[in-house]
Write a structure and sequence with these properties.
alpha/beta; elongated; eight-stranded mixed sheet; Spore Coat Polysaccharide Biosynthesis Protein SpsA, Chain A; 8 strands; about 325 residues; 10 helices
Length: about 325
């Protein structure tokens, strides 16, 4: 039994979740009741739903449940869609004001909520951050499994500190969340930021359920997220440009020797092919290099403007003591 019970807040970003949200809220409220009954969470523990500018009835459903379950269901509505990471950060920044510990998870409940009691035990044992890590991907298609695992391997190769097969299903203590909020960058990639915080951390393995609806993270968004993580945490692409530039310099020196040799032999016409190939290769490399450098400059441009990461339009369920 956990004598000093802590107030828990489940933070759930939502975007166009009308079809599943009511069932998810019911399951999460039942989980909170179970945690309270097992003395793993305090009586004031609650569910915080963040509506990321949905175009369906998501916010109306949140408001309805906040009225039906005062103090147990709370909601935040964005003025416009700002993305999953911004919605998650907004929920954490609000939850840390009243909760001792938070657990973030997606609204579709593909992540196994039955391991959250184990999260709480890890927290009780002194861990400030507990990562939910997928033990297998048997529920994914081959393409989904291949692209997802390639995503994590690419991040590791680029030097981004990340937890393999971990998305945003994690527990964080209040002090860990407060430290996270000290990171003020606009280009958000929480999977890379959280491991940088430090404190004592642990992992809980789980099996993810198969999705019963189209994913909100198709290949295009996954590639964008990977690029966001790489360019926000790694300078290896810039260093790769330097290395490739040096290699191209060595190749050009070798071709220069070949051209001079051909000139002395009087066979200058064959050299045209080599020169054309080198020109095309260098031109392509320069365009790619300029593009990568441009990405970093664009991120600097976004950071120095210091625009707010999200704008909250409305809240519900916070006036209940």
């Amino acid at each position: 039994m956990f004598e000093d019970k802590k107030q828990l807040c489940l933070v759930v970003p939502c975007y166009n979740e009308e079809s599943i949200l009511e069932n998810s809220i019911g399951a999460l409220l039942a989980l909170l009741e179970e945690l309270r009954r097992r003395d793993l969470a305090a009586e004031g523990s609650c569910l915080l739903l963040v509506d990321d500018g949905s175009s369906d009835r998501t916010w109306q459903i949140i408001q309805d449940h906040a009225g039906r379950f005062p103090g147990r269901v709370r909601g935040i509505s964005f003025a416009a869609n700002r993305g999953h990471q911004a919605a998650l950060l907004a929920g954490l920044s609000e939850a840390v004001r009243f909760a001792d510990v938070t657990v973030s998870l997606d609204a579709d409940l593909q992540d196994d909520i039955n391991v959250i009691p184990e999260f709480m035990r890890e927290y009780i044992n002194g861990n400030d951050i507990v990562y939910g890590v997928r033990g297998d991907r048997s529920s994914d298609s081959f393409f989904k499994r291949f692209t997802a695992e390639s995503f994590y391997r690419l991040l590791r190769f680029m030097g981004v500190k990340t937890v393999f097969n971990h998305a945003d299903f994690r527990l964080m203590s209040a002090r860990a969340v407060k430290e996270l909020l000290n990171y003020s960058e606009v280009n958000l990639y929480l999977r890379g930021l959280v491991p940088l915080i430090g404190f004592r951390q642990s992992i809980v393995m789980y099996t993810r359920q198969a999705a019963d609806r189209p994913t909100h993270y198709p290949l295009r968004k996954m590639l964008m997220l990977a690029w966001e993580g790489i360019t926000s945490f790694s300078i290896r692409p810039i260093r790769a440009i330097t290395v490739l530039g040096l290699l191209m310099f060595v190749v050009c020196i070798g071709l220069l020797g070949y051209i001079m040799y051909s000139k002395f032999l009087g066979a200058t016409v064959p050299g045209w092919t080599s020169l054309a190939m080198v020109s095309l290769l260098l031109g392509g490399f320069q365009l790619v290099a300029i593009g990568i450098i441009g990405e970093y400059i664009a991120k600097i441009y976004l950071e120095v403007k210091r625009r707010p990461r999200f704008c909250i339009r409305e809240k519900t369920g916070f006036d209940v003591k």
